[in-house]
Amino acid sequence: MTYSNKKITDSGILLAALAGQNATNSIVISYYGEATIPIMIDLYYMQGSNKYYLLNNVIIPSGASLSLDESDLPYNNNQFDLFLDCQYTDEAQRDNPASVDCSICFGD
User: Fold this and answer.
1) Bridge partners, 3 (sequence order)
2) Cβ contacts of residue 4 below 8 Å, gap of 6+?
3) Among 29, 44, 56, 77, which residue's CB has the most CB atoms within a 10 Å radius?
C-alpha cells in the first residue's frame, strides 16, 4: 500500500490524475478545527466543465473523520483529477479559510 497525506484549504486538487497508478483504495477526510463550527465539504471530479459529485454538502463536525473506501469512490484516478472544496457552515466564518487533512491509500 502507498499512502499520501495532504492538507486542503478552501478548495483544491486532492488527487491529480495518475497515469499508471494503482486504484485509490480509501480516502480519510479529517477536520480538527474550531470546536463549535463544523465544515461542509464537496468531493468531485471534473470532465470538461462538468462536475461529478461523489459527496455534495456533507457536514463534518470538528474532531470527526469521514472514511471512504473503494466502493465509495466510483471514479477512475488514472483519468480524472479529484477535487475537494471545504468551507465553514457558519456564514460569519465563510471569509476565513477552512482546512481539512486528507489521507489517501492506493492499492498495490
Assistant:
1) 105
2) 15, 103, 104, 106
3) 29
Helix (H, G, I), strand (E, B) or coil at 71: helix
d(CA 45, CA 17): 10
- Kindly list the structural domains of the chain, giving each domain's residue range(s) and its CATH number in brackets, ordered by start: 2-106 (2.60.120)
- Could you tell me if 39 and 45 are in contact, meaning their C-beta atoms sit under 8 angstroms apart? no
Q: Is the pTM of this model over 0.90?
A: no
Q: Give 50-101 pLDDT, tens digit per residue.
A: 888 989 999 988 888 888 877 777 766 667 778 888 888 887 776 777 777 7
Among 19, 37, 21, residue whose Cα is nearest residue 99 = 37
Per the CB < 8 A criterion, the answer to whether 77 and 24 are in contact is yes
